[in-house]
Design a protein that fits this description.
The structure holds 2 protein chains of 2 kinds.
Chain A lengths: L1 H4 L1 H20 L3 H8 L30 E7 L3 H14 L3 E7 L2 H11 L7 E4 L2 H9 L3 E2 L3 H6 L12 E13 L25 E3 L4 H14 L1 H14 L3 E2 L3 H9 L5 E5 L1 H9 L5 E4 L9 E9 L5 H11 L2 H11 L17 H4 L13 H10 L4
Parallel strand pairs in A: 1-2, 1-3, 6-7, 6-8
Antiparallel strand pairs in A: 3-10, 4-10, 5-8, 5-9, 5-10
Helix pairs in contact in A: 2-3, 8-9
Chain B lengths: L1 H13 L1 H18 L2 H8 L4 H8 L2 H34 L5 H9 L6 H11 L5 H6 L8 H27 L3 H8 L4 H30 L2 H5 L5 H10 L3 H25 L21 H29 L12 H31 L3 H15 L2 H15 L7 H26 L3 H8 L4 H30 L2 H6 L7 H10 L3 H29 L1
Helix pairs in contact in B: 2-16, 2-17, 3-14, 3-18, 5-6, 5-9, 5-11, 7-9, 7-15, 9-11, 10-11, 11-14, 13-14, 14-17, 15-24, 16-17, 16-19, 16-21, 17-19, 18-19, 19-21, 20-21, 21-24, 23-24
Classes of the chains: A alpha/beta, B mainly alpha.
Chain lengths: 377, 527
């Protein structure tokens, strides 16, 4: 309650602190920065402990040692992120992470209720919409300069309050017995009008990336076109609404449904388990249907260990971290210097929409629209 | 009868220890209702015009109707299944009554959302059952599907309360009615039913409130009710509208509690347990056993078989992160046992007072403890996140606060059984002890407590097994890294690694099943 009403005052306080931090850094007064950084942690200073991260991707060997326990609220699922955390833990004897896993909505809601008193140092989430919201509520801390400079500008906050860690694209998952990839349209609007998809198409409205997709559509195509799309999906196409991404993808794999709008990695997992499953992914071109979104991190304003969180973030943005996302999760890197080598089409083939990811925090209009048109689960 | 009541009333007003008991009940009621303050706090942050617009929108109306439909459906069907089963297992010559009693009670141990996972996997055109039978089965979804599944997993509340009442009822009354030429049905309607009506109402209340607070099942089956709508708004961080919806849900709950208070008004239950004539089933024993077996197969065998299939086939690929550890089971049992102990302790004064006193306050405090049961776990969870993080940092994200959340959610189950068992204590026994110069405390300790102990334990077991199943508040308030069986099931199932969800689900069912045996044993003892 208080935390919402006092946004204005706290934002001023934040700015003053940043100003002090910047001054301190510029005169190289490491100890002063350390004092400002917080208490109870072993690392000194918010700036690089050793090498700075760069767009060309540095190695873990070049980075400073991690020490102490870092508390992370994660809205990424354990299967996707825990192996990376374990790898980093294995690098350092005195470092461990304490991770809380929950849905993105639950995590963000908890962080907002906790305000400055959150036990979390770092928020790691699936979609930049939540990160932008955290920034808006003045609960995120400005990231160190080297982190902001290293990451592609399209994949991080222009004011430096959050950064992407890996990228993903929304996709069309389809049943290969029902459709040939070449026959599918590459225009997201046709999915709401083409009769071939009536009764066999599904969405998952409760996911963060779906909401981001609707926000992006409102921004790019206007509210009327978006409303038309949503109402056609609900009324004309009789789209099935799923509350779980895995059951949505499975319904396509077992023939219950033929088309699913969602993230590509559920399809990847089913195929990994059963390579013969009649399932494939396609992408729309240069429209909100292939919105490029990032999973990413923000360091909390109230973090006990911002310095450790900063150095940890550098590990995610180093070459070992980026390779992990590409190889293990089938995601895209966020550093220009890391090449994408996976099975998905390269980003310039898909030509995803250029879009300021900070706009994705503005979910109220999208939420009202979805509620009014009955696309809620 | 009337003079006896009058006597008790005067005793109540004169007795200071009852005043103390009332104060204690009040403190407990206030404590468990305190998280609800957060709902009001958030709801008032909505701009009034927008609040009005949201409240009177067509969608809100739809949600209200669907929620009422679900609650009413589950309540009615739970009575229709629970009461006949209770009569069959206590009043008839059904063969293997103990076995069928266990079968009829066991569905309560299976979390309804796990039932929903299993049903969705089992039925539908491509489900396991369709593939097994070679005939496409209808999909289970929508309001009808949700009503069906929640009923199948909550009717045991009605079954258990009704059964307990039948066991403790003086059945020579029925024989008397029969000698007066009433036929069996009329004897049931005019003699048995009035006697067991409060018990049926108590069980139906628990089933109905469970239905209104259940999130997993409606969400999984695409039904838009209060809980799924509240959750949807949380997902979009529209907490204020979620709070508005929660307020409406509270209003509905209040009305339900009032209705039940009227229907379930306790006539003094007749003590004694004279075993009267049994219903002789004859050839009807086959359909009777078939019916219970059918329910058992659908509610128990189907989910267990589906988990078995997931486990054996290795459905869902490899994810070492989700490997099972016994620590998860230990955490679950530890938390559930603590919740059961605390809830039983809280229920004792509240339930005792509600049974022994006719005062409005006693009744009010008892009703207030029910509210938390109807509020979705996610709301209680977030309320305690707010209060815990900002005003009680020293217990935030620790076991005590999590256990408190469980007590807020599940206390009424213990209150209900405690109150019923106190009602069944013959007033003359404590009075006799008093005349023998035993003090009030000594009388309670040496006479009343041993008599109501089975009921108190039964309440503790109910709290235990619902805590084992609880998910949303656990996810929000668990000490970081303290995973339990349900959080593992949630993580693994949510990311389609089904085989990792299967083992913890089976272990959950086994542990809760064992606790159910304890409960049934207690009830036999009670009788």
């Amino acid at each position: 309650m208080q935390q919402r009403d006092s946004n204005q005052t706290r934002r001023t306080a934040t700015n003053r602190r940043q100003f002090l931090g910047a001054t301190a850094a510029s005169v190289g007064a490491l100890t002063l920065a350390g004092c400002l950084g917080g208490s109870g942690e072993d690392l000194e200073g918010y700036d690089p402990q050793s090498s700075a991260v760069e767009a060309s991707a540095v190695s873990w060997d070049d980075l400073g040692d991690l020490e102490g326990e870092l508390t992370i609220y994660s809205a990424r699922t354990a299967d996707q992120i825990d192996p990376l955390f374990e790898e980093i833990e294995a690098e350092y004897d005195d470092f461990s992470v304490s991770v809380d896993y929950d849905d993105e909505g639950d995590q963000l809601a908890s962080l907002l209720e906790e305000g400055e008193n959150s036990p979390a140092d770092l928020f790691y989430t699936q979609s930049s919409g939540e990160l932008a919201r955290l920034k808006e509520e003045a609960l995120a801390r400005e990231l160190p300069d080297d982190v902001i400079d290293a990451v592609d500008d399209n994949y991080s906050d222009s004011d430096g309050y959050w950064t992407g860690a890996s990228g993903r694209v929304r996709a069309i998952q389809y049943n290969t017995n029902e459709f040939d990839g070449d026959d599918l349209t590459d225009d997201i609007f046709e999915y709401a009008t083409d009769d071939r998809f009536e009764d066999v198409i599904s969405t998952r409205p409760n996911s963060g990336t779906f909401r981001s997709f609707i926000v992006a559509m409102i921004e790019e195509e206007g509210e009327d076109a978006t409303r038309e799309w949503v109402s056609s999906m609900v009324d004309d196409q009789n789209a099935t609404l799923y509350s779980s991404g895995s059951s949505q993808a499975e319904a396509v794999a077992d023939g219950e449904q033929a088309i699913a709008l969602g993230n590509q990695y559920y399809a990847g997992r089913i195929l990994g388990n059963d390579p013969d499953a009649p399932l494939d992914v396609a992408f729309t071109t240069n429209d909100p249907g292939c919105l490029f979104n990032v999973s990413g991190v923000a360091i909390l304003e109230g973090a006990d260990k911002p310095n450790l969180a900063a150095e940890f973030t550098r590990h995610i943005l180093a070459v070992e971290g980026q390779d992990f996302f590409v190889e293990t999760n089938g995601e895209y890197p966020v550093l220009d210097g890391v090449d994408y080598v996976g099975d998905l089409p390269a980003l310039d083939e898909i030509n995803p929409l250029e879009f300021d990811l900070n706009k994705l925090s503005n979910v109220e209009q999208a939420q009202d629209l979805l509620r009014q048109e009955g696309m809620t689960v | 009868m009337a003079s006896e009541r009058l006597e008790r009333l005067t005793e109540v007003t004169n007795d200071t220890s009852k005043l103390g008991l009332t104060a204690l009940s009040g403190v407990i009621a206030l404590l468990v209702a305190s998280p609800l303050l957060w709902i009001a706090l958030r709801a008032t942050q909505v701009d009034p015009d927008r609040a009005l617009e949201l409240l009177i929108s067509v969608r809100t109306g739809d949600i209200l109707l669907t929620s009422l439909g679900l609650t009413l459906g589950v309540t009615v069907f739970s009575i229709l299944i629970g009461v006949p089963l209770a009569v069959l297992t206590t009043r008839s010559d059904l063969p293997h009554r103990r076995f069928w009693t266990i079968v009829a009670a066991l569905p309560l141990v299976i979390p309804s959302y796990i039932g929903a996972f299993a049903f969705v996997s089992a039925f539908g055109r491509h489900g396991e059952v369709s593939e097994f039978l070679g005939v496409p089965m209808p999909r289970i979804q929508g309001l009808a599907g949700a009503t069906l599944i929640i009923t199948l997993y909550t009717y045991p509340y009605v079954f258990l309360t009704t059964r307990a009442a039948l066991l403790s009822m003086d059945s020579s009354l029925v024989d008397a009615a029969r000698t007066l030429n009433a036929d069996r049905l009329e004897a049931f309607r005019r003699v048995t039913l009035p006697q067991i009506r409060p018990a049926i109402a108590a069980g139906a209340l628990l089933a109905g409130l469970y239905a209104i607070s259940d999130f997993g099942t409606p969400a999984f089956l695409h039904v838009e009710v209060f809980t799924s709508a509240i959750y949807w708004e949380f997902g979009a961080i529209n907490v204020e509208y979620a709070a508005l919806l929660s307020l409406q849900l509270l209003a509905v709950t209040g009305i339900i509690l009032l209705i039940e208070a009227k229907v379930g008004k306790d006539e003094d239950a007749s003590g004694g347990s004279a075993t009267g004539a049994q219903i002789r089933l004859g050839r009807w024993k086959w359909p009777a056993m078939g019916g219970i077996a059918g329910i058992g197969i659908v509610t128990l065998v189907v989910p267990i078989a589906i988990f078995g299939i997931w486990l054996v086939r290795g459905t869902g690929g490899s994810a070492p992160t989700y490997a099972f550890e016994w620590a998860y089971a230990l955490n679950s049992v530890y938390l559930a046992a603590l919740a059961a102990i605390v809830a039983s302790a809280f229920a004792l004064p509240v339930g005792y007072l509600a049974a022994r006193s006719d005062s409005l306050l006693a009744r009010l405090f008892e009703r207030v403890t029910y509210v938390g049961f109807a509020v979705p776990g996610v709301v209680i969870g977030l309320a305690l996140v707010f209060f815990g993080a900002n005003y009680a940092g020293w217990i935030y994200r620790t076991v005590p606060l999590l256990v408190f959340a469980y007590v807020v959610r599940f206390l009424p189950q213990a209150v209900s059984t405690t109150r019923t068992s106190v009602l069944q204590v013959d007033d003359r026994l404590p009075e006799a002890a008093r005349t023998l110069n035993a003090g009030r405390v000594e009388t309670f300790r040496r006479v009343t407590l041993p008599l109501i102990a089975p009921g108190v334990v039964a309440g503790g077991v109910l709290v235990f097994l619902t805590t084992m199943k609880e998910l949303p508040a656990t996810l929000m308030l668990q000490p970081i890294g303290m995973d339990t069986l349900v959080t593992l099931i949630w993580s693994a199932h949510g990311t389609a690694y089904y085989r990792y969800a299967a083992l913890p689900a089976l272990i959950l069912v086994v542990i809760s099943g064992l606790s159910m045996l304890v409960l049934l044993r207690q009830e036999d003892f009670n009788a």
